[in-house]
Each structure stands twice: as C-alpha cells, then as structure tokens.
Amino acid sequence: MSTPVYKPRSIDSMLADFLTTFPAVLVNGPRAAGKTTSARQHAATVVRLDQPAQAAAFRADPDGALRDRVEPILLDEWQEVPDVMGAVKRAVDDDPRPGRFVLTGSVRADLEERMWPGTGRLVRVQMFGMTEQEIRNTSPMVPAPKLLDALVAGDASALSLPVPAHDLRDYIERAIRGGFPSLVLDHTPNTRDVWVDSYLEQLLTRDGHLRIADREQYKLARYFEAVAANSAGIVEHKTIYDAAAVDRRTADTYDGLLERLFIAEQIPAWTSSRLDRLIKMPKRYVVDGALMAAALGATVDTILGDGDLLGRTIDTFVMAQLRPEISRLGRRARVHHLRTKAGREEIDIVIELPGGKLIGLEIEASAAPRPSDAKHLVWLQARFPERFVVGAVLHTGPDIIEFGNRIHALPISSFWG
User: Fold this and answer.
1) Helices 248-260 and 217-229, interaxial angle, to 10°?
2) What is the rounded distance in angstroms from the CA atom of residue 156 to the CA atom of residue 193?
3) Which of the listed residues 126, 160, 175 is the one where a domain comes to its end?
4) How far is residue 192's CA from residue 201's CA, in Å, rounded to a whole number?
5) pLDDT (tens digit, 9 = 90+) per residue, 61-99?
6) What are the tens digits of pLDDT across the range 382-398?
7) Residues 56, 183 within the same domain
8) At 58, which CATH number?
C-alpha cells in the first residue's frame, strides 16, 4: 500500500520557524484536525503515548524515557501520560536548546487543578481543519496566506480567482463539507455524513464526559445544537441555554468545554474609548461548517431555503478560512466583531493588528454587492482614519469591485483562487 502524500498546511511554516527559536512547541486543536500528521513532518522521533507499549516507559520514568532520543521528539497524545509534561519542563530547564520537543494532544480536565508546567518552557500553536487553499494546493510547498496579506499590502488587484467562478451552491457545498482532513481526503459525499455524525456524537458523549456526569452528556449535545443554530450570531446567552433547557451555570460549564474541545469559540466585541455605545456581547462560532450542519441536520437545499441559516453558514465558512491567515498577521493580532447598541452600525469582523491598526470585513451571501454593503466600513474609516488600514466586503459573486478609498468587494474565493 502506498504512503499517502502529505498535503502541506499553513501551520507548517510557523512550526518550522518556532522550532528554530523555542525548545518546545505544543500544537492544540480539534480531534482529527491533522495535528499529528503535520507534527510528524517536523520530528525526528515519534512517541505515540496513546499506545500502551510506548506509554509504559514514560509512566514508569518519564525523565529517563525522554533521554537520548533523536530530536525533535514528537510526544503525541501527551495527555495520556500527564507526567511527561513535567519531564519536558525539566529537560528544557536543563538544556533550553531550540527544536527539542513537539507535543500534540488536548488539555485534560484533571490538569486544571495542577500548576501548568509548560509556562515559560513552550509556546502554543493552534490548528483547525483544512482551508480551501490548503485543500486545493497541488504544490509540495506550504501554501502562503493570500487575502489578508494582499489587503494589508494595498494590492487587492493582485488576488486571483478560480475559473470557473463559484456560485452560491458551490460555497454552501464547501461549507458543510467542512475542513477535517478525513472528510476532505478520504471520504465521498455518501460517507461524509456518516463520519461527521459519528465524530460529533462521540466527541460530545465520550470526550465531553471528561467534565460532566454521564447523565448530562446528551444535554451537552443539545446545547451544542443551540450554539450551532446561532453560529456567527450575537445573541443573549439566555436565548441559547433556554433553547437547550439548561440553566446558566450549566451553560457556562458547557461553553468552557466546547472551547476546550476546539469546536466552538466566542469572538469578543471590539471596544474603544471613542465609542461608548457598543454592544459588549460576544459573537459565537462553530469552528467547522460540517459540525454545524450535522448538529442542525442541514443540507445544501435546506440552507438555500432558509435566509437566516444561509447567512450564518457563509459567515461560519469565511471565519474558517480566516483563522490561519489571522495567525500569520502576528501573535498579537486580535479578532473582534462590532455592533453599536442602537444597531445602526455593525461589522462582522474587526481585526486589530499590533499597534492598533484595524481591518474591517463584512460578509454577504450576495452575488451583487453594492456600495451600501460597505457603509459600515466607511463609517469605521471615518471614525478612525488614522487606524483604519483596509476594509472588504466578502461576497458570493464573481467579481472584484473597488469601492474606493481602501474599501473593496471581493469574492470569498479570493482566499484560494
């Protein structure tokens, strides 16, 4: 049987850079996002701690088991032997050479009661599913981020578009297919639903029990369904936990668990001392459109027939393309949303760069964007002319349109064209 060809990920260049500077790098992300596969590309020695034979030596003597292995050493599923993190700490304290360890896995609940041994010894890199650019990449080279780099450089005209152009159905199909490597590379449309339904069920009723009692597991699944129905939305927390029939305290626990499982996140509201009438509620996202569709039982046709769900699906899909690009803008780039209390101004995504510079993005499920779709970007630019870098309306049509004065309308396919 031939060895599958590795598809480079945008995280690869970051991992390579960090391993030339730091002694240990921890890769976090959802299960089955490709963490181990990518980390292997950067390791000379691979230790699978989910395999009992390999884990036994590390349980008995983690310091001794680490010694004299060819570096970089990949410690995969490190949480299966939590004491290995202490051994990494001691090894780094004794010899802080760069490029010694790569760790993959998840943070188990039982470690929350301990002092985290990684502080000051390792850096974290977050990984999610494959972007469309990674999926379509046919080069052995790491795909370079495109859209945000071009916007910041003031060169939106340099963006290329796929031929033929995508229509709305194409975007929805890509959104609900998701970006998990197995879904993209190993399954046909007929088996993808089986895979993602099983993934979600096991994640929420098996992995989820790390933090909640067995009898509560299906409440977590119901809560995730309510989050999925409000993905890309700014909604009162009570609306979500009432829909799931749980109380506020339980909902807070579930929110933390879903974020620790890396399948949901909350984007904070942007704030400014010059704008005192801003909504402070976060914007919630399911991190992958396949999970969102599975939780809601949604298909391409049901999404196309529901205007509210259509907008949420497109917005969720765009955010999945943005995450790795934002990480390349700098570790201190921050993602927000903006809405004034009166609701007169609302911007889907506000990226605050180091130094306080701003990028504004609007997302429209429309093939014919108009200048009025950019009116809130114009408003942001007028309020913060010294900080505003660029704005874009990301749409489902075929054309790049210049609205003028550093504001553009770009097809969503500009991410990968």
Assistant:
1) 80
2) 37
3) 126
4) 14
5) 999 999 999 999 999 999 899 999 999 999 999 999 999
6) 999 999 999 999 999 99
7) no
8) 3.40.50.300
Cis bond before residue 82 (omega within 30° of 0): no
Asked if the structure places residue 5 within a domain, the reply is no
Residue with tokens 């469309």: 132
Are residues 184 and 289 located together in one domain of the fold? yes
Q: How far is CA 369 from CA 112, 137, 166, in A?
A: 48, 28, 15
Q: By C-alpha distance, which of 40, 39, 16, 19 is closest to 29?
A: 39
Instruction: Please tell me the distance from the alpha carbon of residue 43 to that of residue 58, in angstroms, as a whole number.
Output: 18
Q: How many CA atoms, within 13 angstroms, populate the side-chain half-sphere of residue 89?
A: 11
- Residue 195 and residue 283 in one domain: yes
Q: pLDDT for 139-170, tens place per residue?
A: 888 887 789 999 999 988 889 999 999 999 99
Q: Do 162 and 74 belong to one domain?
A: no
List pLDDT tens digits, range 179-224: 999 999 999 888 999 999 999 999 988 775 555 666 677 899 999 9
Query: CA 180 to CA 69: how far, in whole Å?
Result: 32
Of 92, 126, 160, the one marking the end of a domain is 126
Cα 321 to its chain centre, rounded Å, is 8
Spatial contact of 226 and 292, defined as CB atoms under 8 Å apart: no
The answer to whether the CB of 272 falls within 8 A of the CB of 351 is: no
Q: List the domain range (segments joined by +) for residue 107.
A: 11-126
Q: Quick check: is 71 in a domain?
A: yes
d(CA 381, CA 405): 9
Is 2 a member of any domain? no
Residue 42 lies in a domain: yes
| Alpha-carbon separation of residue 265 from 29, 77, 314 (angstroms) | 12, 22, 17
Query: How far, in Å, CA of 21 to CA of 25, rounded?
Result: 10
Residues 94 and 161 in one domain: no
Helices (H), 297-413: 300-304, 307-328, 375-383
CA nearest to 102, candidates 160, 28, 171, 161: 28
Q: Are residues 217 and 106 in the same domain?
A: no
> What's the pLDDT at 107?
57
| Claim to verify: residue 138 and residue 90 sit in the same structural domain | no
Q: Domain total for the chain? A: 2
Mean pLDDT of 339-344: 85
42 shares its domain with 92: yes
